[in-house]
Amino acid sequence: MSENGNGKDLQLASRELRQRLMRLSPRQRVDALLDVAEARALVRSMPAEDLYVTIQELGLADATELVQLASPGQFRAFVDLGGWQRDKLDPHAVLTWLRAARGGVDDTAEFLRKLHAVDLEVVEYLLREFIEVHDLEENPDVNPPGVTMETPEGRYLIEIKVEGVEMSAVRMLLNDLLAENPFEAVRLLEAVRWELPSEMEETAYQFRRGRLADLGFPSLEDAVALFSRVDVAPSPSAAARPGLVPQGGHVDYLDAAFRGLTLTEALNAEDELREVASAALVADLADPGDLDAIRRASETVRDYLSLGLEHLTGADTERAPDVLRDTPMRRIFQTGFSLTLQLKFRADRLVKMPGALVDGVLMVLPEEAAAIAALRQKRPRRALRVEGAEPVSFRSRRELAASEALLARAEAQVRLLRGALGGNDDAVRETLARFGVSLETLGVERLFAAVVAMAVLEERAAPRPVPLGRVVELGQRLFEGTPDAPRVRDSAAERARRGLEPVVPPEAHAELHRLVGVTLSRLLEELGTAWLQDGRLEPVASAILPMESAPVP
Asked: Please, where are the H alpha helices in 284-328?
């Protein structure tokens, strides 16, 4: 085997080892890195960003040995990732990393190598925040409170403005610098006295930004381009092989694609995946060192990639490796994202439909309203049917289809409600005025309950709060059976449908029938037993059904 071949094999083996390590839990990963004879060499062979994630996942306090074994260049990357909040330097965070880098007394030289790897402007900014330098030649009688130390030549008195472990860390840092090179230390103190913090920070930020680009974090302009819309061709038909596409549960097409790759292909794909995830993180305006943001970006990327692969393979998992070989991962990501954009555009068009918005309220029921709000985000997402849950990324074409169905229902609901409330803007506003409260207070769900209840009573569209004198009649027309086994009368749904169909466009009739059934079932669940026991609906009914005697919640 040639020397070049050996070198390539060693490089592949090293990359494979790093990938295997990153698949372990943080504790197992650290143990694996430390429990070898050449721990320092192994740690220094790891990408700095992988080490950073490992340290943050385990906790810096439990991973100081990794920090101390890291190379000066790796340590500088730790500070670049963990010492900033976007474009603002966090001196307390930088000092924490410096404290973690300090080993025992015999490790001072290695600590100083790490310290000098950090941009001088970062050290100057940190000291500017934590100390005040007094020139004894200018003011020999200065006597600041708190902890102070004097430089060996007696010219400067340094006042340390932090307490506890930070005070000790700053004092040790100053002692190390003064002992290493007193002349350079004095120059540093002069810079701390006179240079502007804003200029220090801006210079350090520019250096940091360049290094982050070298780590794979693109500029914001390039990162945002990841979320560009691309033309999506029709999905190919899946081959008709029995059991090819699982019928239940989520299928991870990205995982299926990786399983079919060779080792070299998988390692290259991992590099592509890292680049796409880094771009997604930057595009979200998240800090590259924010571990929670890294996790969110990684999950989002995997979801879009799986969705894109599902579409490009025609839901055939066996095609996934070939698609991943032949298609740049960035393009696969954009395919998945563009599929969700199609839903966003439809949701945006829905909001512009005649009658869709009345007094700022979207004229659809709560489930559909939540779905539309999630879809209309800059990055379309899927609403969960869990109260208070944050929307999530789309992962499959089945989820896209479910949102398409919700949008179709919402479009029908807009047409349905507009027809039931009068058919034009003026009539709708006149009808809503009968309820005596704002539409936001009333709520679309309670409004439609009134539409159905009055249609049951009058067999026509006559939406208004249920008149007090007709409450008993409404109960009689709605419910039958016993308190233990209440039922909705068949005639209730029939009367509601017959009363509303003439004013509702034909294309919304299917949704009308569904919503009448849903509304009557809810009234049965909330009011049926009470009615059959006591023969009355008040006072609980007003929370579900607008009543003339209690128009507000």
From this structure: 291-313, 320-326
